[in-house]
Amino acid sequence: MDDKLMLMIPGPTPVPERVLQAMAKHPIGHRSADFSAIFAEVTENLKWLHQTKNDLLILAGSGTAAMEAGIINFLSTGDKVLVGTNGKFGERWGKVCAAYNLDVQYITAEWGKPLDPNEFKQALEADTAKDIKAVIITHSETSTGVINDLPTINQYIKAHGALSIVDTVTSLGACSVPIDEWGLDVVASGSQKGYMIPPGLGFVSVSEKAWKAYETANLPKFYFDLGPYRKNAAKNTTPFTPAINLIFALHAALGMMKQEGLETLFARHDRLRSATRAAVKAMGLPLFGPDECASPAVTAVMPTGVEAEKIRSIMRKKFDIALAGGQDSLKGKIFRIGHLGFVTDRDLLTAIAALEATLQELGHTGATPGAGVAAAGEVLNR
Fold first, then answer.
1. Which H/E stretch holds residue 81?
2. Which Gene3D superfamilies match (predicted)?
3. CA distance 30 to 25
4. Does the N terminus or the C terminus of the chain have fewer Cβ atoms within 10 A?
5. pLDDT tens digits for 325-350?
6. CA separation for the pair 112, 187 (Å, rounded)
């Protein structure tokens, strides 16, 4: 049947009907008073979600655009940066830095394992000359379903004095990221994840410490120069034409999130993470990554005895449910279940039931039929 596709991937995520209807409105002039009023409310609600009083800037672009802007606005050619990498996106930020002729030093961990905060501590304490100008961290590594210990790592960054530049693309909106409490400097995210709207907007939170670095940064930039965005944001507008209808969508989505409340929002994602992992274990499938560092946004599974891509294919063709595959070295080895944004308990139970039926079709004998749904239900009913 047409129009029944169910997204259970870590982005883009399902979009609420209310948000789709808001996005379908006729555009209005982006220099009009009406648009400025909407833009002001959106910015204020974004600060609420980010738990910050810092500048919160909106770009027409993806999460990668937001991260690139977050890197190039506060650094200069040849600056030494420390990049944490334990998945595809940590590696991507290293490539961005290299493209701008930054001196990149890596802290690495095996894919599926978290970054070790002590390695950051040692590297930063050894830098007595304060040559490291920024530390770039992926909070929730979308490619592996691992969340890194950002608050602990950031304590070492603050003690050193470097800037923290953080990818929160799949963590913002799925778990608490209290920017001001943790003292984060540059925080980037994208619209198609926890924000419950389609791709096309990037968000960057910028601290006063980062703006001080901006004054001397010399990396080339024009469209991504955040200075003009800051000046225009003070007047509730943007330096370039914004994605007007996506702003409408964001206005509606943030209204829904405020209605749900921060604590309830984060608790829902915690519950979905726990239910997903309990179900996968009950189905006899190995999880990729330990419970202790499991992302609230996405769960990675490394099946044995059945092929990951066959699971994804049957789920898509037979049940119209999209699961994400592995990336780079994990391609064909894992599949990923997204459970962030506009995903409910009902959605998860539906996906788990379909996954159990798929495993039965593929001859998987590692679990009792129905055990996955039962395990998920037990968590959801607590």
1. strand 80-85
2. Aspartate Aminotransferase, domain 1 (3.90.1150.10), Type I PLP-dependent aspartate aminotransferase-like (Major domain) (3.40.640.10)
3. 14
4. N
5. 999 999 999 999 999 999 999 999 99
6. 23
Alpha-carbon distances, residue 260 vs 177, 205, 254, 270, 354 (angstroms): 17, 23, 10, 15, 28
Cβ neighbors of 217 (< 8 A, separation 6 or more) are 72, 73, 74, 75, 76
Instruction: Identify whether residues 286 and 241 lie together within a single domain.
Output: no
Q: What is the pLDDT of residues 223-258, one digit of tens each?
A: 999 999 999 999 999 999 999 999 999 999 999 999
| Residue 121, domain CATH | 3.40.640.10
What is the overall mean pLDDT for the chain?
97
- How far is the C-alpha of 372 from the C-alpha of 350, rounded, in Å? 11
The DSSP output letter for 110 is -
Q: Which of 259, 294, 312 is the last residue of a domain?
A: 259
- Give the residue carrying structure tokens 């599974």: 301
**Residues annotated within a binding site:** 336
Alpha-carbon gap, residue 125 to 143, rounded angstroms: 30
List, as residue ranges, the binding site for substrate. 336
